[in-house]
Design brief:
A two-stranded antiparallel sheet has the order 1-2. It contains 6 helices and 2 strands. The chain is mainly alpha-helical. A hairpin with a 2-residue loop joins strand 1 and strand 2. It is globular and about 40 Å long. Helix 1 crosses helix 2, helix 1 runs antiparallel to helix 4 and helix 3 runs parallel beside helix 6.
Length: 142
């Protein structure tokens, strides 16, 4: 490993490593239940390789792919699981917002993704809380 390689991006939050593999596998799988275990394992290995041997640039490219999956799910295209899209979108958006505290151009580089995720999450959340008689029902906090 190069002494010049910055590792500060690894300290942001563990949620992407913990929650994205299952959610992303569900977004990549056909909508017929939970994703196949092999797909979840492959996604977990991919994330692990990026974290252990990758760079911030590579990690942000991966999160860009996840953003695209979330935006596609919000647009209603494909057979993506909207619950998985919500999880993945919220995790990536939180991650991208935290980049503001790190040195470098990561925060600026993800500005378009943040905007796209905010729109997509708004659409996905609206589907979860359908209106009745023109009024939104409050979401359960349980």
């Amino acid at each position: 490993m190069s002494a010049r390689r910055s590792l500060v991006w690894l300290g942001l939050t563990p949620e992407p490593e913990q929650e994205l593999p299952t959610a992303v596998a569900a977004l990549r799988a056909p909508e017929d239940g939970s994703p196949p275990p092999a797909l979840v394992t492959a996604e977990r290995h991919r994330v692990e390789r990026l974290v252990l041997r990758g760079t911030q640039r590579g990690w942000l490219r991966y999160l860009g792919e996840v953003t695209d999956l979330v935006v596609e799910a919000a647009a209603g295209s494909g057979t993506a699981d909207p619950r998985a899209a919500l999880v993945a979108g919220e995790v990536v958006l939180d991650h991208h917002r935290m980049l503001i505290g790190l040195p470098g151009a990561g925060y600026a580089r993800t500005a378009t993704q943040r905007r796209d995720l905010e729109r997509a999450l708004g659409l996905l959340r609206a589907r979860r809380t359908p209106a009745r008689n023109g009024h939104h029902q409050p979401r359960s906090t349980v």
